[in-house]
Amino acid sequence: MTFERPNIEKMQGYTPGEQPDDGDSIKLNTNENPYAASPEVAAALRNIEVDSLRRYPAPLADQFRQAAASLHQVSEHNIIPTNGGDELLRLVLTTFVDSGETIAITKPSYSLYPVLADIAGCKLAEIDLQADWSMPKNFLAQLQQAQARITILVNPQAPTGSLISVAYLDELAGNYNGVLVVDEAYVDFIDPELGYDSIPLIGRHENLLILRSLSKGYGLAGLRFGYGIACESLVAPMLTKTRDSYNTDTISQRLAAAALDSVDHARQGWVRIRSERSKLLSALAQLGLPSLPSQSNFLLCEVPQAVGAENLYQSLKRRGILVRYFDQDRLRDRLRISIGSEEDNATLVTALKAILEGEVPDPAQ
Q1: I need a labelling partner for 199 at 20 to 30 A (CA). Which of 77, 223, 227, 312 fits?
Q2: Residue 148 and residue 162 in contact, taking contact as beta carbons nearer than 8 Å
Q3: pTM of the model
């Protein structure tokens, strides 16, 4: 006997990346930041008094909303803080789509999106990226044909790392009659010379919602704090109707505000990650593992059939190095590798060379 709703009973849950607690593994599988959060965040944590936790947190996380509004040059009415970016996605579905309606995504994409669609009892339209991993042809027409109520695009794209231009998003939002969610969890790693900035678009499109996260760029994945940026009419129903009563806690609010207030520290880490991304891209190519150009903090590299992506993933794992293998169409011959510290990346390259050249026996053999 089961008490689950029928759609929940039939669905598959989200499978997160491995999180070993041994403290010795080199983790290049979940796109975490290799550099610690700012000293200001550390100070904010030290200054929290246990007695202050007797009381509920600020319901709307006003201090954080002010910090985010100042950083992005928008009104605090354009900001909604959430318990990680994933909660914002749930709020979007809860607020703007009915059971049985359609959510559209590109394929492949972030594997949580189909899970959220199943939970909400929604139909899912997965529209294939082109052979070169660029956006599908006639994407808008396909959205309209599917009658997609919500479309979610991760940008830079995951798991490829490719970037959709602001001009493309502008045109899409202007012609689409549903809610367009642009998941910018990896936006901090885009090369500055590209001049990418989608935030001004919220002033032109009332159907555009931008998702931001402190997990990647600010080194706070363990804090679980994200936020949305949109026009007030899109933010208000989530902020005042469908959001949980106290959806972000006192500690996370204070640390998240401190992180945004000390963004210059985070930017130093972004520069280092972009530099390491370029070096790792070249090193992998020299090993016969070409990667797609990436504007994120990871690379999606192609593994020769003679080696096998899953085999290479397992060989690295046996050496205490975790990367991400996806048992999905178009991805079974590839590995996604997070950009780690200079030391971790060097260890990875050394291990890959040993495995591919057979210099060192596999520990399992």
Answers
A1: 223
A2: no
A3: 0.95
Q: Identify each DSSP E strand in 61-142 by its residue range.
A: 79-82, 102-107, 123-128
| Contact predicate 251/59, CB 8 Å | no
pLDDT of residue 360: 47
Q: State how far the Cα of 44 lies from the Cα of 262, in Å rounded to an integer.
A: 11
Question: Exposed e or buried b for every residue in 22-50, given b needs 16+ CB within 10 A?
Answer: eeebbbbbbbbbbbebbebbeebeeeeee
d(CA 334, CA 289): 9
The answer, yes or no, to whether residue 321 has pLDDT greater than 50, is yes
Asked if the structure places residue 9 within a domain, the reply is no
Find all residues with CB under 8 Å of 315, minimum gap 6, and list them. Answer: 355, 362
**Count of the separate structural domains present in the chain:** 2
pLDDT (0 to 100) of residue 363: 57
User: In this structure, what are the phi and psi dihedrals at residue 333, rounded to the nearest 5 degrees?
Assistant: -105, 20
Q: Which two structure tokens, joined as six digits, stand for 152?
A: 């979610």
Render pLDDT for 147-176 as a digit per residue (tens, 0 to 9).
Answer: 999 999 999 999 999 999 999 999 999 999
- Over residues 86-96, mean pLDDT: 97
Which band of pLDDT confidence, cut at 50, 70 and 90, is reported for residue 73?
very high
Cα 320 to chain centroid, rounded: 24
Q: What is the per-residue pLDDT across 182-191, written as a single tens digit (0 to 9) for each?
A: 999 999 999 9
* Contact (CB, 8 A) for 254 and 223: no
Provide the CATH number for the domain around residue 318.
3.90.1150.10
Nearest to 41 by CA among 223, 208, 230, 196: 223
Q: Are 209 and 230 in contact (CB under 8 A)?
A: yes
Instruction: Say yes or no: 133 and 234 in one domain.
Output: yes
Q: Clarify whether residues 203 and 328 are in a common domain.
A: no
The torsion angle over the Cα atoms of residues 53, 40, 38 and 78, rounded to 10 degrees, is 70
Tokens of 306: 């003679």
As a whole-number percent, the residues of the chain with pLDDT over 90 amount to 92
Rounded to the nearest integer, the mean pLDDT of the chain is 96
Please check whether residues 76 and 56 belong to one and the same domain.
yes
Average pLDDT over residues 4-18: 89
User: From the CB of residue 93, how many other CB atoms can be counted at a distance below 10 Å?
Assistant: 26
Query: What is the rounded distance in angstroms from the CA atom of residue 206 to the CA atom of residue 173?
Result: 9
Rounded distance, CA 42 to CA 22, Å?
A: 24
